[in-house]
Amino acid sequence: MNRFLLIFILLLSFVFMSCGGNSTGPDSDGDSGTDTTMYDVDLTGNPSEGGTISPSGQNTYEEGEQIELQAQASEGYVFSGWTGDITSSDNPHSLTVDQDYSITANFEVKSYELTINTEGNGSVDEKIVEQQSKEYEHGTLVELKAVADKGYQFVEWTGDVTGTDNPVQIMVENPREVTAVFEKKSFGVNVTTSGSGSVALNPDQQEFLYNSTVELEANPDHGWSFVEWQGDVSGTDTLVTVTVDTAKTITAVFDSPFAGGTGTEADPFQISTIKQLQAINNVEYSSDYFIQINDIDASATAGGSGGIEFTPIMNFEGSYDGQEYTISNFTINSTSDYIGLFGWLNKGAQISNIRLVDVDITGGSSTGSLIGHNLGEINNSSATGTVHCLDERCGGLVATNRGSVENSFADVNVSSNSGLVGGLVGINRNEIITSFALGDVSGTTQVGGLAGSTDANGESGYSYRIFRSYAQGSVAGEDYVGGLIGIQFDGSYISSAYATGKVTFTSGSNTFIGGLVGRYNYSGGTFVEYCYWDKENSGQTEAVYGGDSNVTGLTTAQMTGSNAVTNMPDFDFVNIWQTIDAEYPALFWE
User: Fold this and answer.
1) Is the pTM of this model over 0.85?
2) Which of 22, 111, 148, 453 has its CB 3.0 to 4.6 Å from that of 135, i.e. a possible disulfide?
């Protein structure tokens, strides 16, 4: 019992001694002193992966001890402050331990600004994978899509993103700046023409920046006119301004009074209708080149409903090539002078390969089926039908010839109320070469089967006015009537020619008539050689009034078929003339 009591007393004493360990007071020796007080400091991180803390975890410190709290943010995080038993953003933070502490070090994910710039006209759409804000948390993946404005196109990214991919992704791990570069689109302007002409562009280029302007000027070729714009431009103004806001296709439409061509020697105007033929009668086309591209029925010139009153082509000095196509049923009924398909040809004009068929021409002075007054060159052309003149100078093909007629013929019945009438030419003042007339001829004076008269007139240096030519039609007149020529003047040589038609007076008592020439009107000399006439068919015993020993009269039999070779020895039957059974000699070119 006593033993248990002693043990209890000893334990109680020990407890009292322990409770006095954290307090101050006199020690057992009676000395003054301080016992140490201890406190716990508990440190945590929020979030735990946001960083580390020093010192870490839970630690015990003596009261009054100074400790330094240090927060170290992990990559992509930033320390944002201390919370718990203290509130502070200091880092490091100095703490005097005077109690137990529970402290949290707070971390936040870093946020970065992504700066988007544009160069040119456009915008950038931002598509954020995990969140959407102007500032992006560290590691945010952002998709950028460049969107060009109308008329612009995306070119490239510059700055923290480079390249041409669109869209493109960028990882925001720090502040970023990106520029989307746009540029104006270029559009083509495709200009074509319909017809013959050109379009001038100012500026002259093929590609144009968006919303830029270009002037278009339509320039018709010679003989053409501008009609209108078609396609992405409309209107009839020759000069237009186009705003290029997209690709353009534009056509300039040109029109011509002709079937084609530009009037040059290499690209002549093309004639396919009587209206186009009439259109030549314009001073604008007087020196141009023309070709006929098909047969033309000129029946409309006879008048009636829908008819055309054809006006002769005047002052023409260009070139017309009929290409041996026909112009049929051509009619003129006029009292004017200088009548024909061409009223007047100037020097330099060239008419070739025209075939007039079944013409019906009536006119005043200088009327012919093809030409009224000729100063140009006529080659390989012909006419059939009738010609009637109200006044002098009347010809089956040409009325007045002051140029040349070669390899041509007329099978035209020619009549006139006056003189200077011929089956091919009314009055010849220059050259008729390897040509002939077949039609009947009638008039008053100076009437001939080939030409009414011929004279030198100082218009040609050529030795002969009539050369290697003939006439076969009947000839009737009041005076100066001949099977080939009505009257021949000084210097107008005739060589290698013949006449076969009947030659008669119609009235009066005049006597100038001959099988070849009605009268020589010159004082002396020889101006006719190598010529023949059919003294049987013509009814004339003399070649010319008063006779001419240089001209040979033959019978019809002597002049036809192969007999002609023997009886007409001055003719070149190898290169120029040919014989035809029971027919008079013909030219090889016929």
Assistant:
1) no
2) 111
